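Quick one, tokens below:
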């Protein structure tokens, strides 16, 4: 009779465990597909996820310090909790006998749940830490474009800082900002594709003023990426990655506006 009664419970736990495994496989599959779309090296994915914790622990564990007082307080709180649970449940379950075995089981489940939550936080932190590694980001090509956007934005901001000290007039070339404004000339170089060489950014701020239209193009990458994208920066300091078709439209509008500005400047008053 006892075997028959315990069978449904075992099947129920089996279904729950299989459900958790199934959802875990679905999450892993979705993550795999996302990495595949981003173009991240698939051989590096399982390696970093499975073994990436080793260098992290090697870096963190030597810095960890054991707080003996906190440890003793935690053990004392656990002991008091077990005693309190045993006393409370023995009172509530007066018709039946509540044993210490059940108390230890529930406390063990609580400790496992607490440890699992800490492990889940650690896994999320580990995955986030891995995706912030420069080499990992570069594999997807995202870091290259992000760095190019940052450099283009810095060039525009440096030009605006130069203009604030020169009656609102932008420098004629990037060289005029060295070393007065810019101390590291590497911001004038960028690439939008990891397979392309680093090239000097195109600066078109000569003759502009800080009071001009903020949507004017000031800086852009000399060549599009392999998927037809360029990095641009506007006079207002904003930077973004645009398609080559959109860039050509923006460049045509920029040239037209520049021609109109030169024509208006040459017209006698």
């Amino acid at each position: 009779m006892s075997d028959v009664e315990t069978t449904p419970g075992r099947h129920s736990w089996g279904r729950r465990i299989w459900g958790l495994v199934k959802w875990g496989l679905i999450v892993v599959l979705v993550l795999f597909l996302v990495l595949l779309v981003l173009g991240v090296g698939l051989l590096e994915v399982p390696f970093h996820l499975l073994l990436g914790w080793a260098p992290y622990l090697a870096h963190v564990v030597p810095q960890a310090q054991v707080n003996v007082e906190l440890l003793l307080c935690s053990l004392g709180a656990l002991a008091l909790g077990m005693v309190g649970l045993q006393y409370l449940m023995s009172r509530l379950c007066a018709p039946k006998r509540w044993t210490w075995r059940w108390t230890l089981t529930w406390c063990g489940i609580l400790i496992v749940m607490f440890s699992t939550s800490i492990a889940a936080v650690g896994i999320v932190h580990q995955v986030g830490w891995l995706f912030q590694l420069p080499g990992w980001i570069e594999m997807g090509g995202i870091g290259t474009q992000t760095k190019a956007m940052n450099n283009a934005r810095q060039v525009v901001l440096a030009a605006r800082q130069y203009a604030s000290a020169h009656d609102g007039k932008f420098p004629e070339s990037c060289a005029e900002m060295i070393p007065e404004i810019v101390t590291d000339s590497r911001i004038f170089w960028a690439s939008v594709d990891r397979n392309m060489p680093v090239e000097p950014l195109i600066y078109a701020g000569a003759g502009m003023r800080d009071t001009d239209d903020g949507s004017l193009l000031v800086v852009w990458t000399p060549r599009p990426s392999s998927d037809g994208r360029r990095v641009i920066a506007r006079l207002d300091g904003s930077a973004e990655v645009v398609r080559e078709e959109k860039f050509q439209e923006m460049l045509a509008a920029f040239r037209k506006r520049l021609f109109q500005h030169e024509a208006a400047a040459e017209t006698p008053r």
